[in-house]
């Protein structure tokens, strides 16, 4: 069936080389995907000069077009975001706003170019809100043409108002590991199916 490509967009607020729990969980998802003939890369969005906007190219050195090119080459998109005030990070929201432009991008048969691409979410935080963040991100991605598999998210949340990050949490909970493995298996399975049987023209 051939190798499937994945792109993990890490939406931490911290530029490299600062450690990021969101990036760590995103890399764990990518590692789990590699067990299912999927390869890919992680991009930390704040390391690129991504402009605010809702077009495919905001000009003036905008870093989004290069990221978008990699997204178009991938069959799986994983959005990895921390929770801030119960919400996806501002970087995550910017990414979703940039993806709004895909509603105007179609192939030769009138389908959105994102049709056939699979979406998943990885969430970390020291507060409640993982389900809310997952719901916001998956709904937005579905609105712009992505397909969510069963069990399309994995997350870790620490003690409410605590100070321990996922990267410092010691042995990782098996619940998160199991969710990560399920996400990877189902996302890869769906991506392989959609490659063989794409959505019909409209």
What key phrases describe this protein's structure?
202 residues; alpha/beta; six-stranded mixed sheet; 5 helices; FMN_Rdtase-like_dom; Multimeric flavodoxin WrbA
Question: What do these coordinates show?
Answer:
The chain has 202 residues and is α/β, with parallel strands linked by helices. It has a single domain (4-196), classed as Rossmann fold (3-Layer(aba) Sandwich), CATH 3.40.50.360. It is 35% helix and 19% strand. The chain is built from five helices and six strands; from the N terminus they run E-H-E-H-E-E-H-E-H-E-H. It has helices at 21-33, 64-73, 90-99, 130-143, 174-196; strands at 4-10, 38-44, 76-84, 87-88, 118-125, 153-157. Strands 1, 2, 3, 4, 5 and 6 form a six-stranded mixed β-sheet that branches. The model has no long low-confidence stretch (mean pLDDT 95).
Terminal CA distance: 26 Å
Using the coordinates above, name the CATH class: Alpha Beta
| Dominant shape | globular
Please tally the helical runs, counting DSSP H or I stretches of 4 or more residues. Answer: 5
Q: How many domains comprise the coordinates?
A: 1
